[in-house]
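User: Earlier you gave me the apo prediction for this protein. Now I'd like the version with zinc ion bound, so I can compare the two side by side. Same sequence as before, with the ligand SMILES added.
Assistant: Got it. Here's the input I'm using:
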Amino acid sequence: MPIYEYEPVNLNQTCNKCKHGFEFIQQINDEPLVKCPRCGHDVRKIISWCRAAVMEASEEHAHIGRKIAAYEKEGMWSHAAELADTHAEKIKDNQLKMRAIDNYEKAGCNAGTLEKHAKTNNTDVEN
Ligand SMILES: [Zn+2]
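And here is the structure of the complex with zinc ion:
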């Protein structure tokens, strides 16, 4: 769910909640607030792309985490490893990288093939 930021329209008509702006979690389809829920003075929404992006990334992260876990459960180690590896690169997550390496090992790749795999990238080295 996105977090929206609001700021007071009139700086002379504020309360402690809205004086410096405040955050409000809403469904994407909810009507934006027009009044501070505390003092009832006019507020306006500040579009907060940065926060929305962070939320999406963590949702994506949770989604991928579940997918990796599902692969692991099925014993599809190379699938789990590749997904973890790709995602670890993207989000710079060392823990996930270790999980990828662990899964690569379970998939039967030793460090040597792993290195080769990294170099050849998309070429299939499992033989
Ligand atoms: Zn207020």
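For your comparison, keep in mind: The first helix runs from residue 49 to 74.
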